[in-house]
Each structure stands twice: as C-alpha cells, then as structure tokens.
Specification:
This protein is α/β, with parallel strands linked by helices. It folds into two domains: about 140 residues, Rossmann fold; about 100 residues, Orthogonal Bundle (N-(1-d-carboxylethyl)-l-norvaline Dehydrogenase, domain 2). It contains twelve helices and seven strands. Helix 1 links the parallel strand 1 and strand 2. The longest helix is centred in the middle third of the chain and has 30 residues. The N terminus is likely disordered. Bound molecules: NADP nicotinamide-adenine-dinucleotide phosphate (NAP).
Amino acid sequence: MEPLSQPSAARYGIIGSGRMARHMGRYFDLLALPYVAWSRRMEQNASVSAGTALATCEIILVLISDGAIEPFIRSHQELLHQKTPIHFSGSLVTPLAQGVHPLSSFAEDVYDLDTYRTIPFICEGGRSSWAEIFPDLPNPHYTIAPHLKPLYHSMAVMAGNFTTLLWNKLFATFEEQLHLPPQIAIPYLKQICHNLQHTQVNAQTGPITRGDRQTIQSNLEALNDDPFREVYAAFVNAVTPDLLKETK
Ligand SMILES: NC(=O)c1ccc[n+]([C@@H]2O[C@H](COP(=O)([O-])OP(=O)(O)OC[C@H]3O[C@@H](n4cnc5c(N)ncnc54)[C@H](OP(=O)(O)O)[C@@H]3O)[C@@H](O)[C@H]2O)c1
C-alpha cells in the first residue's frame, strides 16, 4: 500500500490494515488504480485523521471488523459527506454503509491479478449499482435482496470456514495421534475439490451417502471423547436424520 500517494487522483479510500484491506490495496495496485490507505494505527503513529487522509476520496471502503463498522462510521461523521461508505461484510445490513461482499477467502498472503479478477462480488439490491461503485473492476457481480444476506453468508461460512476447520482437525489428528505426516492428505483434498468442481452434488461419497450404519457407528465410537463427535452426528442428522436414530 502507498498511504497518501497521489491523493488528488485517488477515487478510493481504504480504511483498515487487516487482511481484506491489504488484499484490496494489492488488487488496486495490480490494476494501477490510485487509492488512499488509512488505519487507526496511522492515526496513532502519525496523527493523521481519517477525515484528513480521505478528504479527496469519492468512495470509502470501510474494511474493518464487522462489529466495528457501524460504530466507526457513527464516530466519523466527516466521512458521510461523501457517497455512502462501502463495507465488505457478508452478513451486515445497515443504512450507514452499503455491503459489497467478495466471495472468497483472504488469508495472510496476497494473490495475483487473475485470482482477484475472477472473485465474484455479491451486492445489496436497491442501493448504488456496481458501475457506480467499481466501474473499473472487471469482477463478476450479482445482487441479492438485503434480507437474504444472512442466509447467503451462512452458506459461505459453512462451506468455506467449516471445511477449513475440519481439514485442520484432520491435519492435527494425523500428526498428533496417528503419527502420519499431515501433507499426505493433500492429494485427497485436491481430489475432493476436483470432484466438487466437476460433478458438484454427485461428488459426495462415504458412509452417510451409502447409508452405511455400521461404519457410522464405528466412526462415532472412535470420536467418543472428542468434541468433533457432535459435529459428525450433526452432519448425519442434517443429511439423513433417520439413519442416526438407529445408530445411537
Ligand atoms: N478476510 C476474509 O477472508 C474476508 C472475506 C470477505 C469479507 N471480509 C470482510 O472484510 C472486513 C475486514 O475483515 P478482515 O479479514 O480484514 O479482518 P482482520 O484481518 O481481522 O482486520 C480487521 C481490521 O479492522 C480494524 N479494526 C477493528 N476494530 C476497529 C475499530 N474500532 N476502529 C478502526 N479499525 C478497527 C483492525 O485494526 P487493528 O489492526 O488496528 O486492530 C484491522 O485493521 C470484514 O467486514 C470482513 O467480514 C473478509
């Protein structure tokens, strides 16, 4: 990021210094779109206020923790003379800022231009259009009614974050209890991703799909002292509730 570089030419102001702010700054850099970056650290370290740093920006992206978005905007009324600020939370709906959610996972390392360009953005219906906010971004974009955002986000969290938790559980169990190198599971992970990409709903295999009560029972017993037993049971319950009744 280049804080305060070419402020007069910057259409965008990015608030925050976390993962999302870093990735968005990187994307703008790759597209050669000027922007101004500001974070509360900058205010602490160099006494630069948000109002001063972002005064010339037309579009303000408030890329901070979900719970801090509304309080931050309320306490920075000087930013509201610009267009309605934009936030990237997948579930928050607020009159103080418009939500535009990038459907991806932004970890510590930044990505390349092709990766950023293909990330779809989900916008809130009835508010500013994509062309008004991001006329220079080539990303696919879709609109849903604001009241459906929590449902949309619950799907993204379950599919993306929960599977990551499950894979981290496998890696840890391999290493600590089974004394297997965790990386030997990577081809399995790749095959699952490939099958999902190419066959989607028909990619499912395993004892739940097969209705294999004996294996499910054995798996649940193996997890008896593990909090993930409830996770396993909840999955069976959600997909085939009758199966679980008879395996208890
Ligand atoms: N990361 C993802 O994969 C992802 C994906 C889609 C959407 N998003 C959205 O992007 C937004 C930012 O998430 P993130 O992943 O970047 O989170 P993060 O890495 O945890 O960073 C959070 C940022 O918020 C700042 N912050 C927290 N409270 C603040 C306050 N009261 N005033 C000012 N700044 C404050 C933090 O500042 P300090 O560093 O000073 O603590 C930090 O810069 C969220 O709305 C999130 O839902 C994230």
